[in-house]
Amino acid sequence: MFLRIADHLVHCVVEGPADAPALLLLHSIGTTLHVWDPQAPALARCFRLIRPDLRGHGLSGVTPGEYTMRGLAQDAAALLDAFGIARAHVAGLSIGGRIAQQLAADAPERVASLLLVDTALEFPDPVTWKARIAAVRAEGTQVLADAVMPRWVVHPEAPSGEGLRQMLLRTDRIGYAAAAAALRDAHPEEVRGRIRAPTTIIVGEHDPAVPLAATEALRDAIPGAQLIVLPGMNHIPNYEAAEALTAAMLAHLEAQPVTGH
After folding, report:
1. N or C: which end of the chain has fewer CB within 10 A?
2. CA neighbor of 122 nearest in space, from 26, 182, 67, 186
3. Which of 18, 13, 8, 59 is nearest to 36 (CA)?
4. Which residues does residue 8 pair with via DSSP β-bridges, in sequence order?
5. Which CATH architecture is the domain 2-254 placed in?
6. Are the C-beta atoms of residues 72 and 65 closer than 8 Å to each other?
7. Could you read off the pLDDT of 192-206 as tens digits, one per residue?
8. Cβ–Cβ < 8 Å for 32, 58
9. Please, which pLDDT band fits residue 259 given cuts at 50, 70 and 90?
10. pTM above 0.90, yes or no
């Protein structure tokens, strides 16, 4: 479905029982809501699943200027408002996980729990992000594909790897660059010490974008957070470790008290 929220058009998929607890899924930079396709059927059995394309991605609108984590978190809150959802579990992959952290820090009453997948408090270094932003603005996301895909997945040549590559190639250059600016400017101080939601952190063992040390720093910044490492996986485990990721997400969600929506 499509909704116009504030200054942009939002594309999202809503699945699951209308009266079930809400679960918001936020995807990574350069992908779309379809990155969660392997997890959606199991999650939608017991949750009202809301999967948006982030601003500047997929079929959602592209707005000019640089995006910020706070602004993207406000997009998430506005989407929940549009569906009349006061409180939701929030899962995020990569930038989606950092947006989820920002939402939990800025609007803790909106977040029942957090599932943070291959994400961190910050994504250094700014110089690299500036170069990537300039390259994408000039040449499009194809300039990144050959370097990025082996970082995202263990088997870029597999059909799922090719599918992720197509998501990247079809991401609007302005939207990607704007979201990359949010990653460039993300600072730990914006969220550290401000998150109290029950949290499970999941990371690929060999994720080059979010090394284990960065994941441990995230765990240590959130009281009571649990850390699960997916053996042999890289930055986007949704397809290559589909069953393990889904099981970890369900275990976290089943351990949470029933919440309103």
Report:
1. N
2. 186
3. 13
4. 5
5. 3-Layer(aba) Sandwich (3.40)
6. no
7. 999 999 999 999 999
8. yes
9. low
10. yes
